[in-house]
Amino acid sequence: MVKEREQLESVVVNALQMRQIEDRIFAASMPVAALMEKAAILCANRIQQLYPLSQISRVGVLVGPGHNGGDALVVARELHLQGYQVNVYCPIHKLKDLTAKHAQYAQNLGIPFYETLEQLYKCELFIDGLFGFGLTRPLTGEIVEDIELLNQWSQPVVSIDIPSGLHTDTGEVLGVAVRATYSLCLGLWKWAYFQDQALEYIGSAERIDFGVPAKDAWAVLGQPAPVQKMTLTLAQRFLPLPRPLVTHKYKQGHLLVICGSYRYAGGAILTGLGARGSGVGMLSIAAPKSLKPMLVNHLPEALIIDCPETESGAIAELPNLASDFNNYSVIACGPGLTSDAKSIVETVLQAECPLILDADGLNILAQLDSISRLRKRPAATVLTPHLGEFKRLFPEIDNPHSDRIKAVVEASRLSGAIILFKGARTAIAAPNGCVWLIPESTPALARGGSGDVLTGLIGGLMAQQVTCLAAIEKTVATAAWWHAQAGIVAAGERTELGVDAFTLSQYLCKVF
Ligand SMILES: NC(=O)C1=CN([C@@H]2O[C@H](COP(=O)(O)OP(=O)(O)OC[C@H]3O[C@@H](n4cnc5c(N)ncnc54)[C@H](O)[C@@H]3O)[C@@H](O)[C@H]2O)[C@H](O)CC1
Ligand SMILES: [K+]
C-alpha cells in the first residue's frame, strides 16, 4: 500500500481521466459527499497550518456553482468552527445540489454571505473555490471583474484543486484566472501544474492526497501511468548505482561528444563537464583541431579527437577515430557546431548507436526534413529542443506552447524519437507514449550554456545504461531532473544570478 501511494505521487492526469477515476470510486458506492468531505477537510487542515489563527483571523471564501464550490464551503465551515471569521462570496446563485446543501448549512451556522466581492476587502486570506476541473469554457461577465479585483489585492490566495479560470489540461487562462499563492491539487496531479503558461497562476503547488485507490487509477490510466512526474525516489532508482564491484571504464559506457567551433569553443567544455558529472566511464570529444589545447586543459580525463576545420572554424570532417561509431555506446552531437557542420550531422544520423542531438545539431536537422530523417535512424534518437528549436523541427505542430504536453507527445509520435522539450517545466516523451514531467526548476537556468551541460549529462548517463534501451526516456528524464535540481541547489546558495553554466556543472555532484 505504501508503495502504491508513492506511485500515485508521480501520476499526472487530465480532467477526463480524473473524472473517470472519480466515477469509478462513486460507482463502487463511495458517497460523493464523503469524498468531498475527505478532500476538503485535508485542505482545511493544510490551510490552518499555512495560515494559523494566531496570524490571520478573517478569511474570505469564494464559492462557485459546482463541487469546487462545495469543497470551499466545507473549508469555510471548518475554519468557522475553529474560530476564524469567515466571509463567503458566492457570485453564481444556481448551485449543484450538494454545494447548495453545504451553503445552507454554512448559513445556518451563521457564516455571513455577501453580495459583492468588494465587501470582503478586509479579509486577510482568500480561499478560491470558484471552479475546479469542471471549467471548460471561458469565463465571462461579472466573475471576470471579480477575479481581476481579487488579483489586484495583495492578500494571499489559496486555490482549491486549481486556480479558477485555468484549463485543467493545458493550463490556458480561460478569459481570466486567479493568481494563487498556493494551489492545493486534489487527489492526483493534473497536467496544468506542469504547463509553463500556468505557472505564474499556480504559485506553490501541493498535492492533497485524499487516498485515491490505486486500482481505480490503474484501471483508467493503465500501469505504469502514461504521464508521470519525476521524483527524487525515481531518479535515485534510475541512476546507474551502485556500480558493480568489479568493472572497468569501458563497461561504464563510452560517450562520444561531437561539438564546438572556433566561434563557440566554450560549448564543448560545458558539454564535457556535464558528461563528467554523469560519472561516465570514458569520454571522447571530437572538436575542431584548434580547440584541442583548451579542451585538454579543462577536461584532462577526456580523449580529445582533433578534427579538420572549415575556414569558419567548424568541424569539417570526422577523422577515423570519431567516425567509427561502433567504438561508442552513445553519441551526443550539437553544442557549438555552427550551421557549417551540416555534413557532420548528416553522417552522425547514420550511427548505429543511440544519438542525442542538441542546439546546432537540431538546427541543422530542421533543414534536412527532420521527421523522415529521424524515422530512418537505425537506433534511438534523443532531441532536446527549446521552444524555438521545437517549432523549427516540427512546423506541423501548431502552437506547441499552448499545450506543451500534447505537443511533445505528438512530436515523439511523428518522429519516433525521444523528445525532451525544454521549458520551465521540461517534458520528455517517448514514441511508446510515455511522458515524464520535471516538476521543479529555476529561472537561474535561463542562461547560455546550461543546455550544453544537460546534453553532456544525458549522454553520459545514457552511455552507462545503454544495455536497457527500453528505458532511455527514464534515463533522459533522470538527467533532466538532476540538472534542474543542481540549478535549484546552486541558486539556493548563490541566488538566481549566481548560476553560470560552469558553476551549474560543479553542483551536479551535490544533488544526490
Ligand atoms: N478530484 C476529486 O475526485 C474530487 C473533486 N472534487 C471537487 O470537484 C471539482 C469538480 O467539480 P465539478 O462540479 O465537476 O466542476 P467545478 O466545480 O469545477 O465547476 C463546474 C460548474 O461550473 C459551471 N461552469 C463551467 N464553466 C463555466 C463558466 N465558464 N461560467 C460559469 N459557469 C461555468 C458548470 O456548469 C458547473 O456547474 C474538483 O475540481 C474538486 O474541487 C470533490 O469535491 C472531491 C473529490
Ligand atoms: K479553484
From TrEMBL:
<comment type="function">
    <text>Bifunctional enzyme that catalyzes the epimerization of the S- and R-forms of NAD(P)HX and the dehydration of the S-form of NAD(P)HX at the expense of ADP, which is converted to AMP. This allows the repair of both epimers of NAD(P)HX, a damaged form of NAD(P)H that is a result of enzymatic or heat-dependent hydration.</text>
</comment>
<feature type="binding site">
    <location>
        <begin position="132"/>
        <end position="138"/>
    </location>
    <ligand>
        <name>(6S)-NADPHX</name>
    </ligand>
</feature>
<keyword id="KW-0520">NAD</keyword>
<feature type="binding site">
    <location>
        <position position="68"/>
    </location>
    <ligand>
        <name>K(+)</name>
    </ligand>
</feature>
<keyword id="KW-0067">ATP-binding</keyword>
<protein>
    <recommendedName>
        <fullName>Bifunctional NAD(P)H-hydrate repair enzyme</fullName>
        <ecNumber>4.2.1.136</ecNumber>
        <ecNumber>5.1.99.6</ecNumber>
    </recommendedName>
</protein>
<feature type="binding site">
    <location>
        <position position="164"/>
    </location>
    <ligand>
        <name>K(+)</name>
    </ligand>
</feature>
<keyword id="KW-0808">Transferase</keyword>
<feature type="domain" description="YjeF N-terminal">
    <location>
        <begin position="18"/>
        <end position="218"/>
    </location>
</feature>
<keyword id="KW-0418">Kinase</keyword>
<dbReference type="InterPro" id="IPR030677">
    <property type="entry name" value="Nnr"/>
</dbReference>
<feature type="binding site">
    <location>
        <position position="451"/>
    </location>
    <ligand>
        <name>AMP</name>
    </ligand>
</feature>
<feature type="binding site">
    <location>
        <position position="452"/>
    </location>
    <ligand>
        <name>(6S)-NADPHX</name>
    </ligand>
</feature>
<comment type="similarity">
    <text>Belongs to the NnrE/AIBP family.</text>
</comment>
<keyword id="KW-0521">NADP</keyword>
<keyword id="KW-0511">Multifunctional enzyme</keyword>
<dbReference type="InterPro" id="IPR036652">
    <property type="entry name" value="YjeF_N_dom_sf"/>
</dbReference>
<dbReference type="InterPro" id="IPR017953">
    <property type="entry name" value="Carbohydrate_kinase_pred_CS"/>
</dbReference>
<dbReference type="GO" id="GO:0046496">
    <property type="term" value="P:nicotinamide nucleotide metabolic process"/>
</dbReference>
<dbReference type="GO" id="GO:0005524">
    <property type="term" value="F:ATP binding"/>
</dbReference>
<dbReference type="GO" id="GO:0052856">
    <property type="term" value="F:NAD(P)HX epimerase activity"/>
</dbReference>
<keyword id="KW-0456">Lyase</keyword>
<keyword id="KW-0630">Potassium</keyword>
<feature type="binding site">
    <location>
        <position position="336"/>
    </location>
    <ligand>
        <name>(6S)-NADPHX</name>
    </ligand>
</feature>
<dbReference type="Pfam" id="PF01256">
    <property type="entry name" value="Carb_kinase"/>
</dbReference>
<feature type="binding site">
    <location>
        <position position="128"/>
    </location>
    <ligand>
        <name>K(+)</name>
    </ligand>
</feature>
<feature type="domain" description="YjeF C-terminal">
    <location>
        <begin position="232"/>
        <end position="512"/>
    </location>
</feature>
<comment type="subunit">
    <text>Homotetramer.</text>
</comment>
<feature type="binding site">
    <location>
        <position position="161"/>
    </location>
    <ligand>
        <name>(6S)-NADPHX</name>
    </ligand>
</feature>
<keyword id="KW-0413">Isomerase</keyword>
<comment type="function">
    <text>Catalyzes the dehydration of the S-form of NAD(P)HX at the expense of ADP, which is converted to AMP. Together with NAD(P)HX epimerase, which catalyzes the epimerization of the S- and R-forms, the enzyme allows the repair of both epimers of NAD(P)HX, a damaged form of NAD(P)H that is a result of enzymatic or heat-dependent hydration.</text>
</comment>
<keyword id="KW-0547">Nucleotide-binding</keyword>
<feature type="binding site">
    <location>
        <position position="386"/>
    </location>
    <ligand>
        <name>(6S)-NADPHX</name>
    </ligand>
</feature>
<dbReference type="GO" id="GO:0110051">
    <property type="term" value="P:metabolite repair"/>
</dbReference>
<comment type="similarity">
    <text>Belongs to the NnrD/CARKD family.</text>
</comment>
<dbReference type="GO" id="GO:0052855">
    <property type="term" value="F:ADP-dependent NAD(P)H-hydrate dehydratase activity"/>
</dbReference>
<dbReference type="GO" id="GO:0046872">
    <property type="term" value="F:metal ion binding"/>
</dbReference>
<dbReference type="InterPro" id="IPR029056">
    <property type="entry name" value="Ribokinase-like"/>
</dbReference>
<feature type="binding site">
    <location>
        <begin position="422"/>
        <end position="426"/>
    </location>
    <ligand>
        <name>AMP</name>
    </ligand>
</feature>
<keyword id="KW-0479">Metal-binding</keyword>
<dbReference type="InterPro" id="IPR004443">
    <property type="entry name" value="YjeF_N_dom"/>
</dbReference>
<dbReference type="Pfam" id="PF03853">
    <property type="entry name" value="YjeF_N"/>
</dbReference>
